[in-house]
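#struct-help
A.M.: can someone run this one for me? Single chain, 234 residues.
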Amino acid sequence: MDNAYRILVVDDDLYIVNILQTALEQAGYQVLTARDGEEACRIAAAQRPHLIIMDVMMPRCNGMIATMRIRQGSNAPILMLSAKAEGTDRVLGLEAGADDYLVKPFYQQELLARVKALLRRYDSLGSIRETMGSDQIRLGDVILDTAAKQLIVRGEPQRLTATEYKILHVLMSNPGRVYSAEEIYQRVWDTEAYAVENTVMVHISRIREKLELNPKKPEYLKVVWGIGYVFEAP
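D.P.: on it. Structure tokens below:
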């Protein structure tokens, strides 16, 4: 494992922090720790971790607020941890800016697998290794630069997370083709899809906020009710 990866573990439960730190360090990662959202924001800004594992319920500044604040200056993957398994909590976490969501209690191997998958996607899309180039997918006023891993909408660059970029790359590579939520999830998350509609829907909503003049009446990224999503050039 590449020990250049820095992972920030954020949880007010010292027992959980110690368990995660031990498991991650044994897997070859460098580990930073924080006990609340305020400390997490300071460390994220100063140390620029490659991935953040964020608990939801914490004092001073909870994980939802911390995630939104961190997202203003970082597109590093955020894996959110919560004791709540309800679908609405998962959606709220993703809407706050998380890339994935894991319910406590969890198996250590599952967490490590999620971490590995998020880092692999983040790294391969150039968020860790910056690349330059001119390969582009151009549809209407939207350009997806596949070398620089950048979205340009009506001449203005838009910040994307690695997950958002991968979803757009799938859809824009085959304009007019409808992809189900399950197919998008399998291609982007590189794992089997089970009850993933809300997860994909939240990421699509976040992409629309950056892409569309009116996200409620999208010109490009549209839903085909009962089937899936499609990217169309107006």
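A.M.: thanks! The longest strand covers residues 6-10.
D.P.: also worth noting: The radius of gyration is 18 Å.
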